[in-house]
Prior knowledge:
The chain is about 30% helix and about 30% strand. The protein is of the alpha+beta class and about 180 residues long. Strand 1 and strand 2 (about 85-90) form a beta hairpin. The termini are far apart.
Amino acid sequence: MFALHPPAHRCLGxxxxxxxxxxxxxxxxxxxxxxxxxxALDTRRLDGVATQFAxxxxxxxxQAQARNMPVHLRFSSGPSGASCYAVQASVGxxxxxxxxxxxxxxxxLRFVALGPADGVQLSSSAASMRLDPRHGTNxxxxxxxxxxxxGRSVVQAVxxxxxxxxxxxxxxxxxxxxx
Length: 179
């Protein structure tokens, strides 16, 4: 009869060379994917702020009509790249209600601040917009630019009726037509 020999000792696990090869392949893949991942995140932030602004403008219009009093959107930007806007129900002059947290107004409805860490900045061609409850109009008309740190931007033109038309210069932001 034949004697069965136990199988030879097999190594379980990885050799150092296999582990190094795996790490090298992962490093190459991460190097290739990281820039596109960062650009995708920047695009989502840019689109998110642009969409939020359009929704806040619609909110301001509805609040002006519901309260039967003017609602103001006030814009501000700081030297460090910070920017903000505030939706405020106010009967005072724009100078009486600056775009800062805790401003003394009739009522502050919404406040959105964007810092340098957000990677997105908002700028406006007008310091303030007034939404009239009686006529449903927005004065003055304004152009808002939401820009990312890589230079891409979404331009939002707000017309007299308070409606927003969004576009991207040179169509650099997916989902927005070219300006």
